[in-house]
Amino acid sequence: MDVQQLLLFCKTAETLNMTRTGDILGFSQPAVSKQIQQLERDLGGQLFLRKGRQLHLTPFGALILPRAQRIVAQVQELKSEAAQAIDPFRGRLVVVAGSVTMTYLLPKVLAEYRKQYPQAQLTVYSGKTTETVRMVEDGSAHIGLVSSEVIHPRLTVEPLFFDAMAIVSSPELNPHTLIDLAQGPWLIFARGTGFRTYIDQFFAEHSFIPDNVMEMDSIEALREMAAAGLGYTLLPVRAVSQSMEQGKLHIIKQEGLEPEARCNSLIYRKENSFYLKEEFLLLARKILKNQ
């Protein structure tokens, strides 16, 4: 048994998907499966049960999980503290962010951070809001960036800026009434994400029930599908601004149906403070507050 196996187990217990775990932590699906099988042999019990294509945590796995999470967090904090003690400029920093933040905002911060601290060991993961919160909470990540509301008793949530949202489609689609718009077709983000929660709340607040819905798990896929004329979609303006400039997309405006901006926030644990983490927070505030 080793810490890597425990980390893969903890992440898989969160995602319930070994492929997703591998994508987040940089392993292939077969490698994740092999490591977890070895951990099961070492522990003497089955951690997961597969029913069809769905993965479930067994009672034994649920019993083991809290202790495994604490061990992983303690080992990662120990590594970070040791590196910081030797040289505060060569320590390890782990950041996790959602797909929109990762694609359109974080590169500016990372580029400047790398320029200022070239010897820092910087690891960046992409994750849903629930995954981001979990990783910061259990110590797998030091800093998270989220675009959904987070309320957590043990985490600091620091709002940075609001991201404008818009309903967009190809210019060929131009609904004249709310009924036309509701009839779709619609392209929306997949369930189980903070972004999907925002979309569902938007529809509910406006008593708007879209018909003919197609779901996808990628902002880029939604944008390109909309540009191809396959339907309406609700996306951050920054994610579609270039397509609008190119004439591929336009904003659909219906009176009383204006999407609210989404608040983007930093999340972190105050008690786990070190130089590289504090410097990243300062840099993120400086760059992202102006968005």
TrEMBL record:
InterPro entries documented for this protein: LysR_HTH_N (IPR000847), LysR_subst-bd (IPR005119), WH-like_DNA-bd_sf (IPR036388), WH_DNA-bd_sf (IPR036390)
GO terms of molecular function: DNA-binding transcription factor activity; transcription cis-regulatory region binding
Keyword list, A-Z: DNA-binding, Transcription, Transcription regulation
Pfam families found in the cross-reference section: HTH_1 (PF00126), LysR_substrate (PF03466)
The keyword Metal-binding belongs to this UniProt entry's keyword annotation: no
All copies of domain HTH lysR-type, residue ranges: 1-58
Family in the record: Belongs to the LysR transcriptional regulatory family.
Official protein name in the record: HTH-type transcriptional regulator GltR
Species the sequence originates in: bioreactor metagenome
